[in-house]
Design a protein that fits this description.
This protein is of the alpha+beta class. It has helices at about 1-15, 50-80, 95-100, 110-115, 120-135, 170-190; strands spanning about 15-20, 30-35, 40-45, 85, 90-95, 135-145, 150-160, 160-170. It has six helices and eight strands.
């Protein structure tokens, strides 16, 4: 264990150390500090409490949230639908690969730095109004995706710090539906 190897290095080489330890019940924390005093190796173990205990708890919660955020970003990045996040000022801070392809950018950094927008100005204005009101915005809009006009179902959710949006492309569904109706009309004409 870390304590044993640190204690051994302290006794042999005089190397001081400080470790944070977790109790067997995982609800108690300890500081272990080893140092040389005179010709003696001293190991001091203290239970952590108060502000230091709160700091440990905050660090653990931060690490858990950071892990969840990393997983969510990986999921959003891999998804087929364009996703974007704006800060409280409305500036793009995250776009996924589908968004990059939709706005004909090469990288997410390029799309963010250029402020490449997927939605047309009138729809962006409506989304911005909803954002300033802190309201959920859902709308079917037409936008240029990779150089072609597509029907998109856009959902935008707002929090005090950011706004996240996703655009579900309905172009293929619309095309298949139109083709099916055309085939049905042809079938009716032959009957």
């Amino acid at each position: 264990s870390d304590v044993c190897s640190s204690d051994l290095r302290l006794r042999r080489n005089g190397e001081a150390f400080r470790l944070q330890l977790t109790g067997l019940a995982c609800d108690r924390y300890f500081d272990a500090e080893g140092c040389v005093v005179g010709f003696n190796a001293v190991l001091r173990i203290r239970e952590v409490s108060g502000d230091r205990l709160e700091l440990i708890d905050l660090r653990q919660r931060y690490a858990a949230i950071e892990g969840e955020l990393s997983g969510m970003r990986a999921l959003l990045e891999a998804g087929p639908a364009p996703v974007w996040i704006r800060n409280a000022d409305g500036a793009l801070t995250f776009v996924n690969a589908a968004y990059v392809a939709a706005v004909d950018a090469h990288t997410s950094e390029e799309a963010i730095n250029k402020g490449a927008e997927l939605l047309d100005p009138p729809d962006r204005d409506l989304a911005a109004q909803a954002r300033t009101q802190g309201a959920l915005w859902r709308e079917s809009v037409t936008a240029t995706v990779a150089g072609q006009r597509h029907l998109l179902d856009v959902i935008q959710a707002t929090s005090p710090q950011m706004t996240a949006a996703i655009a579900i492309d309905r172009h293929e569904v619309t095309m298949v539906r139109a083709d099916l109706e055309r085939q049905m009309q042809i079938g009716r004409a032959h009957v």
